[in-house]
Design goal:
Length: 220
């Protein structure tokens, strides 16, 4: 009988010890804490966001531990549905949402920088709300525009001259606007007349030459 009682006592102690160990493992910082992501941009253009992210993670982890140690509420896997537990769980979810928000921004920034973006590009990307593909397309369009604007001849185009890269690009723009002209890079009557017609329709000085005003209108 004595052995049976001792055995029962040992089993009870073992069960109690196991439950205590399970709770310890469950809420030990190494196993219960939310881990900061390694795939975030620590050089994000807005340093406040980086600070807020780490601060939000610390607040979240502290809240989880405090609710368990002080109120025995497991906010991640609640066992009760009383009002106190419901309130604690809602607070936990709000704190977790804040962490996820900052983390998403920093992850996206690192992803964009892996594609060649810098901090200014990331900021513009976020402000304009474009997809990565659309933003890259916009950047390429701006680069093309800047190259073309810097290539405007300082003197009037020579009529009937040899192949010219600038004239060729202007011809491409005119074709996109609906003009049926050859793409040969040669400044002939077809190209000049198309430019005059375009300038006339857009209330520009119709001299058949490409200046900044005409080129800006063609690029729109």
């Amino acid at each position: 009988m004595k052995k049976i009682l001792i055995t029962i006592l040992v089993v009870i102690i073992a069960i109690f010890g196991y439950n205590e160990y399970k709770d310890y493992k469950r809420f030990h910082p190494k196993t219960s804490n939310y881990k900061t992501s390694e795939n975030i941009d620590l050089d994000y253009y807005n340093k406040t966001i980086v600070h807020n992210y780490f601060n939000a993670v610390e607040n979240l982890n502290g809240y989880v531990l405090m609710q368990w140690s002080a109120n025995e509420i497991d906010v991640k896997s609640p066992e009760n549905d009383n009002k106190e537990t419901e309130y604690a769980v809602n607070q936990y979810r709000e704190k977790l949402a804040k962490v996820k928000y900052f983390e998403a921004l920093l992850k996206q920034s690192k992803k964009l920088k892996n594609q060649g973006f810098n901090n200014a590009d990331v900021q513009n990307f976020e402000l304009k709300g474009l997809s990565v593909e659309a933003y890259n397309k916009k950047l390429n369009a701006e680069k093309y525009k800047n190259r073309l604007m810097s290539s405007i001849p300082k003197e009037n185009l020579n009529y009937g001259g040899g192949g010219n890269a600038f004239v060729y690009e202007v011809q491409k723009l005119l074709v996109k606007k609906g003009y049926n002209i050859p793409l040969d890079g040669i400044f002939k009557s077809e190209t000049r007349n198309a430019i005059i017609d375009f300038e006339t329709k857009h209330n520009l000085f119709p001299d058949g030459q490409i200046d900044e005003y005409t080129l800006e209108a063609l690029l729109e």
